[in-house]
Amino acid sequence: MDTDFGTSQVTNNGYSSKDSSSDANYNNRLDSGLDSLQEYSETYTSDAYEYDGHSVNSQNYQSRDGISKTNATDSKSLKSYEDETSYYGSRLDSGLDSIQSLCLEEKPCELNSSDSGDYNDFASHFQPDKNGNTNLHRKIIEKDCDSAYEIISCCPSPFYLDLGNNWNQTALHLAVLTDQPFIVRTLVVHGAKVNPRCSNGNTPLHLACGLGMAVHVDMLTEKLNASEESAGFRIGHIVHDVNTANYEGFSPIHLAAQNGHADIIDILVKELKCDVDYPDKTSGRTALHHAVDFQRTNCIKTLIDSHANVDALTWDDCSPLHVAVGARRPSRADINLLTEHGADMFLTTGDDMDVTELSTHNKRIHQMMKKRQREQASRDTSTISNGHCASPPPPHPMSAPVTTTA
Length: 406
What we know:
The chain has 21 helices and 4 strands. The protein is mainly alpha-helical.
């Protein structure tokens, strides 16, 4: 991680941020589950490709709205991402012991007997190895784009494109992890399911958002363009539940906020209509809580600009400001952002602690919080004295006394 986040002590409220020694444990939340990938490829480099008649490079991509989006994930960070998140894949059984188990759920299309030779040749591409990887998986892992495209193009049924390896990773997962947006789009338009879950519950969209791959988010979510429709593709199921949570309880916007990808947050909220205040399934934290916890100032700004609730509470009544002041090394910039946008200084946690009590471990922040509380109290008093307080509601008609006239 780029930042040492410190350790917050919002005592007994179910919320704690990380110090530098435990920061790697956080990264484990985003496990790719791709242990077998290391056997086939040592480096991942971004390739230029043709999309909709234009040359596109995932490192500098013009999105659907014409805004240049730079892919922040280079080969080093992707390799680090996989290395640091290797523990999680062992926590959950993949549920995919063999391809036969998948065949019980869905039957692939049948080829004519006259095509039996072609079928046998094609079927060889989908025989799993010891790691459950088919030839298509291996070609994607090795970044053999031409061979992967050929296999996808001749596939008689999308069923084969959705086969998973021992970590339940489909070809679409692997194409995202190895940063191949052309293959991602090829799989999507040929009918691959866009919401499959790997062994830790991540969909390809989770991976793209956690890794900061704006181009992949677009490849996964854009509807068919004119050239794709003219080529005969008729896929109508490119629909994502952008609020779906993985098995750790995090949705794509939570992963983007945790990893500092403000551009991804912008896409999720403005283009895909993601719920900016959607709580996670672990403690009820919103994306703003996560951005504050990991001191992602750029994401805090983007979320506030997207009208995130600065006083959203977790299940233990912890606000983003509580998280900010409770950190071992609080960020003054983050605290200023929250207070300048109206964060309530007098909210208390489930343990009945306000921001002054949570900041006693840092004298400067403690004095700052006491001053901000006085300022807010003064503003509230001034508002009341100037007659700007909300007037009481009128009495209900049924509660008015009944009067009679002579």
